[in-house]
From TrEMBL:
Pfam families: HAGH_C, Lactamase_B. Its cofactor is Zn(2+). GO terms for molecular function: hydroxyacylglutathione hydrolase activity; metal ion binding. This is Hydroxyacylglutathione hydrolase. InterPro entries: Clx_II_MBL (IPR035680), Glyoxalase_II_hydrolase (IPR050110), HAGH_C (IPR032282), Hydroxyacylglutathione_Hdrlase (IPR017782), Metallo-B-lactamas (IPR001279), RibonucZ/Hydroxyglut_hydro (IPR036866). One of its GO terms (biological process) is methylglyoxal catabolic process to D-lactate via S-lactoyl-glutathione. It catalyses: an S-(2-hydroxyacyl)glutathione + H2O = a 2-hydroxy carboxylate + glutathione + H(+).
Amino acid sequence: MLIKQIPIRNNLRNYMYLLACEQTLEAIAIDPLDHNLCLKVAADLGWTIKMVANTHHHHDHIGGNGPVIDATGAELVAHTEAMSAIPNVDRGVQAGDSLRCGKLRLKIMDTPGHTMSHICLYFSGTDAEQPALFCGDTLFNAGVGRCDFGGEPKVLYNTFVEQIFPLSDDVRIFPGHDYIRNNLEFTLDREPDNQSALNLREEFKQGLDAESFVSNIGIEREINIFFRLDQAQVRAGIGASALDDQSTFIGLRRLRDNW
Ligand SMILES: [Zn+2]
């Protein structure tokens, strides 16, 4: 699979993605908010956009659909239950469905919590290529999506327990926003001795480019505080309400909302 991660550099620091079949150069555009930039990058690469996939209905993910589809005739794909909120969806998808583009195959995961109808797109990898997760606003580098725009923290926690935590360490992470620097600071606020987070923060200080940094699930288990619910320091920091992993996760989400 050919992957082009495109930073938009807007206030919300959205990422959009182009994923192409290596043989046919037919491509899927994920959440192509900056339509001009998306079309230009595809043209420069010689890729043909055949499909637009939205991870969820928030405007900063669907706002570029119309012009990209007008220019390419691409099929619009989204969660079945997001079809009422996203104009002109051609095909609703649900857990276990596949997206096909040339020889490229992606599996749909149904990952509610940030919104109640959110999909992630999973590439299972090959002998030569590690798996990859295009996770919208469910999982960020060193963080998770907020739940106060139509979501629910308990539901997001269940999504992580059932679908994200069990992923193998080598799954690469391609999120919907570039929030890693703030998220790392939050991890270190909660767990000041986290050596992996300290090391990564130092690498950014030394010039590591956040936009070219690709995390994976193994790294997230170390630097993402929402993966570290059983750590005594993390739990103690929530206080008496942190009775178990679920209440710790929800407590962290609440703290992060106001941080
Ligand atoms: Zn969102």
